[in-house]
Design brief:
homodimer, 224 residues, Alpha-Beta Plaits, four-stranded antiparallel beta sheet, 21% helix
Chain lengths: 224, 224
């Protein structure tokens, strides 16, 4: 799996769930399909009067989720930005051409209430619960996303390109406090922990369920 | 459309998108299908080690979105609560029996890392963009949801039952400042504004796009 394939899959899925936070800090979620995909960016349409638009203008943080027919989950985290004034019409016309149903929803000049947002820098997580062991991977679009979290040196891939941000790691890791007892391995539903001192979680197969974390007798398992 | 049918539709859709806010106040979204439906409540399973679980325990606010094959969007807003200790096993076993794939993900005793949350009080929005005019309606499960928003008297249905909260209204309304010019009606993509003084938006067909709001020459259109 790779970034380009993930974006293609999102495009084929078509109708995606967009999560934002509202003015009260509460989660909001909508289905959006008025989307155009470029190799390095995603453009989407909404109307200026919608609360969704206000949330994007005032906060901007968005997570986008697609679920494929192959039971893959593809999740994109980003900050949406309003597209430059002089490019609004170009992308709006393109999205309306690609999604003819939009002309039924916004006939004639009423589409002028529309606004185009774009996503250029994002983190994309691929997650497949239907294989054994489960599989996950994370990719960076553009410069990735800002994060307050600092990742431990040992979980950094170490191959971050200049100008790119790190992948925000999630899940668990086993620290040097490990005594090699193997209890974590026995408690892992996905059998994704390898022996050694310290034992090692294979992050691409980890559910992030916390079983190893709860069972470790010496608290050697840390949350990332 | 009604509450009971909406819950049935969510059940048939199966895989729903759950939005929460994380510890940084950012939106988070996941697909969840480990769900059991009762007439008056929804129970769902996750693992104690997941960030999703932590977000539910620390904040609890959740929006759940389902998209049907008939292109209906059903959105539930609520506050998830951890199910009572003595009922955890009962619902967990039921969810695992109803969703056999879960036993592949959490074999044997590893399911003990699970935790059951429940939703009893919610607001449910039904939205269909594929009909003309578009159609939307809102229902209350249990006591509904808390809201900081006060709705104008004229948009209240006036039929709130004792012990229930109001539906949180969204969109726009036309106030008595209306001069009856009809510009709003001409600008409405869904032709859902009726003549009169004041003109009236039929809320069940309103996109919430904001066209009437932006075009009214006397600012008689207000956001709810």
């Amino acid at each position: 799996m790779d970034l380009e394939t993930c974006l293609k899959k999102l495009k084929y899925i078509g109708v995606l769930a967009f999560a934002t936070v509202d003015l009260e800090g509460a989660p909001q979620i909508r289905n959006i399909s008025a989307i155009h995909y470029e190799k390095d960016a995603i453009y989407f349409f909404t109307a200026r009067g919608k609360e969704f638009c206000r949330e994007l203008l005032e906060d901007g943080r968005v997570q986008i989720l697609g679920y494929s027919k192959y039971k893959e989950m593809i999740r994109l985290s980003s900050r949406a930005k309003q597209t430059a004034e002089e490019e609004q019409k170009k992308w709006m016309d393109l999205i309306f051409a690609e999604q003819p149903y939009l002309t039924n929803v916004y006939p004639g000049k009423t589409r002028d209430i529309g606004i185009i947002f774009e996503i250029r820098d994002a983190q994309i997580e691929y997650f497949h619960l239907g294989v054994s062991p489960i599989f996950r991977e994370t990719y960076i679009l553009g410069r990735g996303i800002e994060t307050k979290q600092e990742n431990a040196a040992e979980v950094e891939a170490g191959d971050v390109e200049p100008g790119k941000r790190r992948v925000r790691m999630k899940g668990y890791r086993i620290t040097d406090a490990c005594i090699g007892c193997g209890i974590c391995q026995g408690s892992c539903p996905q059998k994704c922990i390898e022996p050694g001192v310290p034992y090692r979680i294979r992050p691409e197969h980890c559910l992030h369920c916390g079983n190893c974390y709860e069972h470790c007798p010496v608290s050697a398992v840390k949350r990332l």
